[in-house]
Design a protein that fits this description.
- The protein has a domain of 75 residues.
- The longest helix is centred in the first third of the chain and has 16 residues.
- The chain is an alpha+beta fold and 110 residues long.
- The radius of gyration is 23 Å and the shape is elongated.
- It has a 5-stranded mixed beta barrel.
- 15% of the residues lie in helices and 35% in strands.
- The protein contains 1 helix and 5 strands, in the order αβββββ.
């Protein structure tokens, strides 16, 4: 009986201190831009979109203005950029859990 009680205490203390490992969401590199200006999607105004496997999706979970001036020369309305994203496609929209714009390399003059 004493051994059973000790085993029970050890087991419960281990179970209480064990932490559930959270998996990092799977990321991928995608093309990101303004859905209307660059990807030819129908909509009102300028809206952030990503292109995955050649198909564009509007993005939920972040907005175009959170990633700089959309109308700058390198902004989403004038350029297609690369982004590292994690999320899933739900109802024909990309629901982002993470969205990180990849910095463009500046051309150097020689």
């Amino acid at each position: 009986m004493k051994k059973t009680a000790i085993l029970f205490l050890l087991f419960t203390s281990f179970a209480m201190t064990a932490q559930e490992k959270k998996e990092k969401p799977k990321t991928q590199i995608v093309e990101a831009s303004c859905g209307q200006c660059q990807f030819g999607m129908k909509g009102n105004g300028c809206t952030l979109a990503v292109r995955i496997d050649g198909k564009p999706y509007f993005v939920d979970g972040t907005v175009i203005d959170k990633h700089g001036d959309a109308h700058a020369s390198d902004g989403f309305c004038n350029a297609i950029r690369k982004a590292e994203v994690a999320g899933e496609i739900v109802n024909d929209r990309f629901v982002a859990s993470t969205f990180q714009l990849i910095e463009q390399k500046k051309a150097t003059k020689q």
